[in-house]
Amino acid sequence: MSTRSPFVGSRPFDTADEAIFHGRAREAAALAKLWRDHRVTILHGPAGVGKTSLLRAGVLPALGAGSRVLPIGRLAFLADFPLAALPDINPFTFALLASWYPEDSPTRIAGSSIRGLVRKNAGVDRHGDAIPVFAAIDQTDLLFFGTGERDGHRRRFADELVEATAARHELHLLITVRTENLDELQTLLVRSGLPVRQVTRFPLTALSPSAARQVVSGSLGDTGHPLAASAGRLVDELGAGEASIDPALLQIVCSRLWDELPPDGDDERLPKAVDRILGDHCLRSLATVATAYGEWPSALTTWFRHVFGRKPDADGVTEGRRLTRDLPNAVVRALEDVRLLVADRHAGRRRYRLPQARLRPVVRRLDAEAAVSARHERPRLDAAETAFTAGDLDLARRLASAVAREAGADRPVRGAAECLLGTIAYGQGRMERAAAHYEAAIGVFGALGDTAHVGMLLAAVGRLKIGSETTEAVSRLRAALTQLPGDTFVKTALAHALWHAGRAQAAIAILDDALSQNGATPEAIRLRGEMLADLNRAEPALRDLDRVNYGDRPSSRAAWFLAKRTCEDAGVSGAEERELVDDADDSGPVLLRVARVLRLEGDADTAAGLAERAVKARRPPLPEHLRKEAERLMAR
């Protein structure tokens, strides 16, 4: 008998698991055909139904040889990349391209669009025709968590994705999403210009009892395991008369029975064994979620037992309003992730139910005190990445801290966790804490001889110190350039630091050098345009700023207005002035540029007030060489 279990338990199947992936052959073939025949295919289903498993272990092998298939894309931000090194990137676009093109450098990815990088990596066949490119994006639900700045990132990401599909006809997209987010995803894509006729949808539901039996018997094959003789009884026991079987629970139960079923395969013991396994799964999952989210395991278990152990509503579900009143939404989503809940939408409301009715009597008997001692899963770095991407910085910090503590000898994981902690602190505005975590990561990756990570981390620390410890910023960025020689993004950051140190000509010379190496680096072009505007070199400033999308950056917009007003009679309107000042917040350079525009228009009093604010500003402060200009405006 084989000693290796053919069941994967609670994790999804991967591409290497094709040989033990059963029960989904029809769905895999149908979805592969849709992917080949359509520009955009959306695979949707509830949490835990097996979308990731079908994609990795079923659909990818079904595409066949000769297809150009990119690695599975993900939107969770990578823990080992220090966001402060390239603060202006779209995290969704960056994460997707980094997973599609893992061999490319982070700076090349950060400087590319989806359309641009697909074009650079496109190929042609022997007839000169473009080779079809099959690209998948898994778990796009991350797009729909959180608000604020993420709304802009989400819209721009959708715009880029739709632009790429329109421009690159060889690109075929497959996107997975939970059904409750399907309408929101499709609305997002259509608003970005994707024609509805180009979208096809493929629903994935739970296993039928016959497919579930095929999963069990097909996985066991000729292993000789006693569970093979009980496959039908097991499916009947787990289904308890329902028309479908939850695939995740089936894998969890079978994985445990593989280790625990007695050699005689006594069917009479099966119901009690299933009860015990499901109970253990509930307690461990509740303990894991409670530990991650700062809840008491006993309290969460009591709540779960009270809500889902009792008799359900007439249609078998519990309305989500009751859940969101009792618990944070993030905790409820986590219970979906650990296969304890499934979400449905009905009349616009999100409602929750157990994935299998067979769980209800188990839930009813859960011992809240037993959850306290239940062995919870170790924190995972990918869970911290997901929490950060979803905008839950407190949860991401707790998870990443736990990963860093428990990483032990796994130094790459510890280094990535420290890096993520630095990025989280940066997102919370705690710059000193961010620098300390990045420094800790430098120590870990430096001991591994990983110059790429060390270089990006040094660049991140250098950027964080610009304006507060400018000499140290220049030093760190020069050190980063020794680790990543020729990197245009590090050169751009070094130029920025030199600019703040009052070395304007040296800063522009470095940007000129960076752009002679790679003339399509938007950040370098934008920064040079801003510097030239401050130096009254209006025409070259406008040439630079008109080459990039300056509208979403107050500093670049203010520089453009200053350059435009310097070389011609075209100032700002009252509405534009107010918008620029509002967007400036506590930025010294933006406030000074607006002040200079208003002074050129004859409004000396308002200009003097803004110049005074510019001198006091701290995020970022004025470079030293611009303080004299501010003082001159204040004196007038």
Automatic annotation (TrEMBL):
Domain of life: Bacteria
Xref: InterPro entries: nSTAND1, P-loop_NTPase, TPR-like_helical_dom_sf
Pfam entry (one): nSTAND1
Domain Novel STAND NTPase: 6-346
Protein name according to UniProt: Novel STAND NTPase 1 domain-containing protein
Organism taxonomic ancestry: Bacteria, Bacillati, Actinomycetota, Actinomycetes, Streptosporangiales
